[in-house]
Amino acid sequence: MQTIDINIAQPKLHALIHQLNDGPVVLSENGEPVAMLVPCPKTPPKEPRKPGMFAGQIIMHDDFDDPLPDEFKDAFGL
């Protein structure tokens, strides 16, 4: 694990990020570790959403936009 002083790391941040495949980088200040740079986990690509994929599964009631009852307003301090 590489350790580098934060003052030296700052101008080299871009290069350090691209070195994270070799392992985490510990950032230190005055010889004491203060932070660690680690790579983000890879996420698999998502399938694009398709319009209408939930058609018929979602119900919007006629009173959706009506004002909230007083008991809801009181509960949420509105």
What can you see in these coordinates?
By secondary structure, this protein is α+β, with helices and mostly antiparallel strands. Helices cover 22% and strands 19% of the residues. It contains 3 helices and 3 strands. It has helices at residues 6-9, 13-18, 70-76; strands at 2-5, 25-29, 32-37. Strands 1-2-3 form a 3-stranded mixed sheet. The termini are far apart. The mean pLDDT is 89.
What's the CATH H-level superfamily name of the domain at 2-37?
Answer: YefM-like domain
By CATH, the architecture of the domain at 2-37 is named 3-Layer(aba) Sandwich
Shape: elongated
Helix content: 10-25%
**Rg, nearest Å:** 25 Å
Q: What is the number of beta strands?
A: 3
Distance between the termini: 52 Å
- By DSSP (H or I, 4+ residues per run), the number of helices equals 3
Secondary-structure map with pairings?
Layout: E1 2-5, H1 6-9, H2 13-18, E2 25-29, E3 32-37, H3 70-76
Task: Output the keywords.
3 helices, 78 residues, 3-stranded mixed beta sheet, YefM-like fold, elongated
In short:
The chain has 78 residues and is of the alpha+beta class. The chain contains 3 helices and 3 strands. It has a 3-stranded mixed β-sheet with strand order 1-2-3.
